[in-house]
Amino acid sequence: MTIWTELTGVDVAQTFVDAGGVTTRAVQAGPADGPPVVFLHGTSGHLEAFVRNLPAHAAAGYRCHAIDMLGHGYTGKPDHPYEIPRYVEHLAAYLDAAGIGRAHLVGESLGGWVAAWLASEDPGRVASLQLLAAGGTKADPKIMERIRTSTRRAVETDDIDLTRARLHLLMHDPERDVSEELVEIRHRIYHRPDFVANVGNLLCLQDMETRQRNLLRPDRLARITAPTLVVWGRNNPFGEVPEARAMHEAIPGSRLELFDDCGHWPQHERHEIYNPLSLEFLKAAS
Asked: Count of domains in the chain?
């Protein structure tokens, strides 16, 4: 199965949007007048993380926007550390550029961290919130070092096996969920000169002092008023189930769903469960 066959039959387009002066890659799908759903990937990731989700959501009538976040993928890479308010500023600029006043946000890992921050700061822009293995509530030195080391190794050494290992780290069953096409896409991104030059800015949240001032603390999570769905894999290598439960308990009225046989990409690894769950949630939140 390739990314192209996943998208066969879907009215989908790749485009580049000027988001506050940052050229931003986006894949857009679904009816132009449908309720907007914006998909946000994780650290060192790219919009292909949602290729198994766009067809179902577009077919249900949603206008889907999967973007490469600030400093990631083929989006522009201004030379400054990417702390959470910078990502939020870029996301808001993308919404403005796309003519979106209020969006359903779906954030995986770092994407969930950014989406939750926007929801806590500017609730009028967030129709609903999905936090998929979301980061940002803890500062675990071992996990931070694993992310920093594995990413730098894959970026700074032109060995595709290191990129493959970085992707395998995310999945509970990499033989099932990491295609060679996905490895090749990420390897090409990782070895673009602008990505290599920028990797330190991208990894700044793995520095303890920087991370501490960007954490999603309980008082911030308590300010989220949007309907919120927390999704977590029971085999998530970057956070155990109690982390998900604490997030759920801190966000008023939120819903928690735990997936078996699932690591850090629940929307991808268990798309057959996630897609109907998401569509049910979006319908109730609309």
From this structure: 1
**Is residue 249, in this structure, part of any structural domain at all?**
yes
Task: Please give the residue range of the domain that contains residue 260.
Answer: 3-138+218-285
Instruction: Note the pTM of the prediction, 2 decimals.
Output: 0.97
Distance CA 103, CA 101 (A): 7
From residue 254, give the alpha-carbon distance in Å to each of 233, 244, 248: 17, 11, 6
| CATH, residue 57 | 3.40.50.1820
In this structure, are residues 147 and 165 in contact, taking their beta carbons and an 8 Å threshold?
no
Within-domain flag for 169? no
| Nearest partner of 219 among 120, 106, 88, 130, judged by Cα | 120
Residue 183, domain member (yes or no): no
Is residue 62 a part of any domain in this protein? yes
Helices (H), the chain: 3-6, 54-59, 84-97, 110-121, 141-156, 160-168, 174-177, 180-190, 193-202, 208-214, 218-221, 241-250, 266-269, 271-285
Residue carrying structure tokens 């798309």 = 271
Torsion of CA 157, 158, 162, 167, to 10 degrees: 110
Token pair for 2: 């390739």
pLDDT 10s digits, 2-40: 788 888 888 999 999 999 999 999 999 999 999 999 999
Distance CA 265, CA 78 (A): 27
Q: Which pairing describes strands 255-259 and 228-233: parallel, antiparallel, or unpaired?
A: parallel
